[in-house]
Amino acid sequence: MNYTKHILSKSTFVYGCQCPKRLYLHKFRPEVRNEEDKSQQSIFASGTNVGLLAQELFRGGVNAEPPDAFSYHLSVAKTQQLIKEGANIIYEACFNYNGVLCAIDVLIKNSKKWYAFEVKGTTSVKSQHIMDAALQYHVITKSGIQLKDIFIVHLNNQYVRRGEISVQELFTKQSIHTQVKEQQKFIETKIEELKKVVADRIEPVVEVGKHCESPYPCDFTDYCWKNVKVQETKSEREEYINKEYLNEFFSELQYPLFYFDFETIMPAVPEFNISRPYQQIPFQYSLHIQRTKGSELEHKEFLGDGVSDPREALIKGLLGSVGNRGTIICWNKTFEVSRLKETARDFPQYRIQIYEVIERVVDLMIIFRKKMFYLPDFNESYSIKNVLPVLVPELSYSDLAIQKGGSASLTYSELKNQTEEIQIHQRKNLLEYCKLDTLAMVKILEKINKI
Ligand code: SF4
User: What is the pTM of this model?
Assistant: First the structure.
């Protein structure tokens, strides 16, 4: 079979729709791409997992996937061969029409009619999914397969895992046939426009802007934004300290004080019993305790084993440590309280105790969000990562191996795949990171109190 090398794939078409310069850089200047972002790798990995699982919705198919990313011509040939041989279910069916290459997750023939299914690791259909599918529809139908319908298969956020995963309940299928057909004219015009970008090999002139982040973060921002002046503007808002508000805040605190912080993971496919797609699962906490005014700090912490459901051991540890009196101080209490309520819902045997704990939670961030304590160096931000270096410069996240919640989640998710040596090292990093979050609150509160 004669195979024409493709000019555009679904990914490069999507890049080009976002920004023609991104398409050009991807094709001809890959060396200026940003250093790979670890969190993007994790999203990719989680998407792959969802795609494989969704194949179980359509059992008994034949895989037309290429052996490697450079052999899509084999995949196109295999798809044609499978269709000719009368296959009814093809995974990763691949087509090349007029220089545009597209694969679809599942292609099904039922009563002589063809149906296409594209799997997404989201919990709803997004506008960018319609655009992807519109391109797939164009390439598949132009290749001679008349599609009776085309669907997005996405995760069902109402699904609660009980025992083994039920793929029928985990996924929802939504027809997007009408929307996709409406986009066909646009797709044809865009393909020609983007093929020209590739043929011309001239870097398109595109100003940076909001499109650099939407619908996907572009991976050439270091290159394009390097000459854009970053405005080091100091906030025009003046220092403001509302002592009355602060006094009231302090008067409501009751010893012992517990400074508390959770870290969470958010698996796309529920890993544990009684959990849902993308549910935030707390796997770690840090708790600094001050029993009486001026007394020495105590520290308690919890970190899951990286394999089993950490929630019950975590909540037992927390309830034991916070007892039944004293104020529990969080930064952005909505987050911690939401996780506590979810834990109470999923582990009703602790419901009463958890709701008693929730009653005792106060939010330290509120002082900064309401700007009751405001210094121009905060630059309008009330993130602990910005407030801490201004108020307590001697305490810093910059020396830590893990400096953000996102990296903590990723590190924890990967723990089970690491060697014992790396696990020990990463567990230490996780504990240090979470500990600093609560120590930061202790020091910030001390600082305000002095002022
Ligand atoms: S950073 Fe912005 S302007 Fe540059 S290629 Fe990406 S989307 Fe286009």
Answer: 0.84
